Input
Amino acid sequence: MKLLFWNLQGKKPLDEAAELIHEVDCDIAAFCECSDDFAADVQVQLNALYSKGYRHQETPGCNRIKVLVRDALNSISLLNQHKYFSLMLLKQGAQRLILAFVHMPSKLHSGEDELRSLCEKLTHQISAEEMANDVQDSLVIGDFNVNPFESPIISFSGLLATNSMDCVERDQWTRKGDTKRVFFNPMWSLYAQHLHQPGSHHYRRLTEDVIEWHFLDQVIIRASLISKFSLPDLRLVDSTTRFSFRKKSGKPFVSDHLPISCRLNLAGGI
Amino acid sequence: MYFDKTQFIESEAEFPEKVVGKFMESFSIATEGLAELRVSAMGASDRIIHMLGPFPFQFDLSLSSPYLAGYSYEVLYFGYDLSLYPVTYIVNGDIASSVGINTNPFLSGAKLVASSEQDFTKSLEEILSCAHFRATVGGLMKIARNRS
Output
């Protein structure tokens, strides 16, 4: 199963988005900073130009994220919907997976502690849904608006997303009597692939720090999914046949974020 | 000291969860049974996460649908102590914004206090009739009808 996420920055690159979905050949495409009308237009374009059937999976209660699902993938149901995240349950044969699509608030409007608090709510909700639905495997994809090394992502009171695959052997951490399951963050592997411009988004915060490239768009997974997650297929999408998503300088073009895609090898062939 | 029956008067105020409950039946009828409002007692971990306060009685009010088994959308959390009122509640951020109330980003919503049953009822009427809530219910009804 292939997933795609792209923060569109409020723009409407219809041809680019349709070609991107077609070429990535994703089963699920999620956009943020995107209108319902645009998502519907992409759906029509995919059908008209590429004869590909996708439907708009509406997420009542979560307006910040728009999700297109391949028609053949008919076993998705809605779980908790929140201003900043949308949770869904995917069933495919014996495989049951929780998918979380996120678009956290910008650091321009929220402090790191506020983002950490939101990440804590997200973790809590995912754990509750895992328990309610008897699911072990969860994947979170979206614009977290923080880097993989920042507190909301790595802290115990945040998402608890580690950079160590050793979490396969120990996927629970206990601190002060509270036990949580960790996430694995495969985004760290992309730092090695993008040595000069490590990030999906370029932003120079003149007063805060000297970091210019940010991996705000991320995928994190439960340790139980590591064996099914294809690391080589985790990538920033720089271009399609007709369109480049970077300027000559390497900075994102079309939107100020680059699209990100990943693949899970699930039983049943999706 | 001697106690007699005139010293203690049982509260006549309605439990806040029953005040909320008064809206639930007509809501279900208004949405043709496609959407429901649900009140649930909050567990220990929910209480920590949602930071309502040290109230012994805490509940959440969420939107759900009998046709979408796992769907939920938190409308508000509320809590109170033995005096029943005031009731303290945190309203969903989008709904609070729609009503015109400033939100606290730490809470993902707006924390409010209703001093009486009447105040709580009035506030609930405002919350459950705001544009954002109505749009969310409308979207849910559309999906639920497709599944019914």
